[in-house]
Sequence to fold (293 residues):
Amino acid sequence: MSCSNEIPYLSPISCYSRASSSSETELSMHFSSKSFDGLTPFLNKMLAKHANQKLKLQDSNHLPGYLLLQPDMINHLVSTYFTCYNLISPMVHQKLFMERYLLLENPLDDLMTLYICNRVCGFLCNHIHFTPHDGKAMADYFFEKAYNMILDQFDVPEKRLENVMSINMLSSYMSANFKHKEGDELVAIAYQICLDLKNEFKDPPQTPSYKYQVDYALFTRHITITMSLRGLLNGLFDRPMDESFHFNSEWVAVDDEPEETKRVIRIQNWFGSFFSHSYIQQFMVNLHILVFP
Fold:
């Protein structure tokens, strides 16, 4: 299947095409697809509910006043995200995102932009001078719009990596606002998409393009986050442990990322190596049984 309307910062690996083989950049995956329990049972129910109760968001009626009064507010939120958040939590590649963002006619129709705005409004820094009430109202608006958009496009092949990224990045907001049920539904979707994308990244092209390298780097980060979230939610909802509990993938940095981000990635990989030790893994299993008997 060929890509159409491809998102500029996602490469051709986002489609259902297999790349030529190479073993040099293969991900260190330590789980199989045997736990692929399918989306059908709960997803049909969730999508039916979504179709019947989908929020009717009209920009002019539901948009918080700050956005109406300050046309450049979205640009300010995006700039603040890359200044204060992405450096130490590198979930988005700034260069390719900004190239694409500047071409958008309406940023509020873009899923990644909605996440970024939700993140900044939901966890305010010193660059954003909202009251807690205004910040919460705006964060809620961006979340609701992003949530509906994910459900509308979760099965679009070329949107798979974008969907996983958005679900992971919205997870902190869902957790902080006790939206555990919605979070569990979305993480289940992200988990199945990761199983699919994992197989494609096993066979990288002989000469990876720049976009492919960015996609690969982002995938190494987001599959780790997805598996961690799945493990936590399995415990929260009293489900048995699966492969996600012992998952580890080494994060990859892109050459043009800031040095601060590269240090964060090195630290993350050190922790990943530490928790991959057999003794630590057994300790975590025992702790899980103790906390979630």
Q: What stands out?
A: Residues 9 and 97 are 6 Å apart (CA to CA). The chain has one domain: 44-291.
